[in-house]
Amino acid sequence: MVKLSAELIEQAAQYTNPVRDRELDLRAYKIPVLENLGATLDQFDAIDFSDNEIRKLDGFPLLRRLKTLLMNNNRICRIGENLEHSLSALTELVLTNNNIQELGDLDPLATVKTLTLLSLLRNPVTNKKHYRLYVINKMPQIRVLDFQKVKLKLHAGGGSTAGEEEDGPVTSRCRSDQGWSCVFTAALESLGM
């Protein structure tokens, strides 16, 4: 395992990626902990931490410029609190193939109001009942979840829920005798519409 040091950051590949963002490539170094990221001097729009040994998504200094964080193929099982303070411009977070287990483990991401793309594919949490609805309800600003566009889906009953499922956090606000109109209203409210 390699310690994420200022020297490693200076020696790592830095380039302009295909979408014209400045990117730092820290891929496949077997880094176990996010640390010393102040050495980036907030010069990057994207950082690729794919294929490392990271277990917790935290340890970020103030990085106002960072928009994209690629964290796929790590061992992430916990997400730190207050990411919105250190990553105030984060719009894209790829956490594919990690070890996030429970729906509640995703709650710290709800404070990152700039986040519009989130991938959690190949995490145990994606197998939980009402996973998509939970994420959409907690993070209504998400427009792409697991590389699929998020949209309201109308059901034959004349109502709607956010995502693909018919019951969950949104519908829990409605009594059974209120029907789909209550669900439709609750879904719109949860999406800020």
From TrEMBL:
<dbReference type="InterPro" id="IPR032675">
    <property type="entry name" value="LRR_dom_sf"/>
</dbReference>
<keyword id="KW-0433">Leucine-rich repeat</keyword>
<keyword id="KW-0508">mRNA splicing</keyword>
<keyword id="KW-0677">Repeat</keyword>
<dbReference type="GO" id="GO:0005686">
    <property type="term" value="C:U2 snRNP"/>
</dbReference>
<comment type="subunit">
    <text>Identified in the spliceosome B complex. Identified in the spliceosome C complex. Found in a pre-mRNA splicing complex with SFRS4, SFRS5, SNRNP70, SNRPA1, SRRM1 and SRRM2. Found in a pre-mRNA exonic splicing enhancer (ESE) complex with SNRNP70, SNRPA1, SRRM1 and TRA2B. Contributes to the binding of stem loop IV of U2 snRNA with SNRPB2.</text>
</comment>
<dbReference type="GO" id="GO:0030620">
    <property type="term" value="F:U2 snRNA binding"/>
</dbReference>
<dbReference type="InterPro" id="IPR001611">
    <property type="entry name" value="Leu-rich_rpt"/>
</dbReference>
<dbReference type="GO" id="GO:0000398">
    <property type="term" value="P:mRNA splicing, via spliceosome"/>
</dbReference>
<comment type="function">
    <text>Involved in pre-mRNA splicing as component of the spliceosome. Associated with sn-RNP U2, where it contributes to the binding of stem loop IV of U2 snRNA.</text>
</comment>
<keyword id="KW-0507">mRNA processing</keyword>
<dbReference type="GO" id="GO:0005681">
    <property type="term" value="C:spliceosomal complex"/>
</dbReference>
<dbReference type="InterPro" id="IPR003603">
    <property type="entry name" value="U2A'_phosphoprotein32A_C"/>
</dbReference>
<keyword id="KW-0747">Spliceosome</keyword>
<comment type="similarity">
    <text>Belongs to the U2 small nuclear ribonucleoprotein A family.</text>
</comment>
<feature type="domain" description="U2A'/phosphoprotein 32 family A C-terminal">
    <location>
        <begin position="128"/>
        <end position="146"/>
    </location>
</feature>
<dbReference type="InterPro" id="IPR044640">
    <property type="entry name" value="RU2A"/>
</dbReference>
<keyword id="KW-0539">Nucleus</keyword>
<dbReference type="Pfam" id="PF14580">
    <property type="entry name" value="LRR_9"/>
</dbReference>
<protein>
    <submittedName>
        <fullName>Small nuclear ribonucleoprotein polypeptide A'</fullName>
    </submittedName>
</protein>
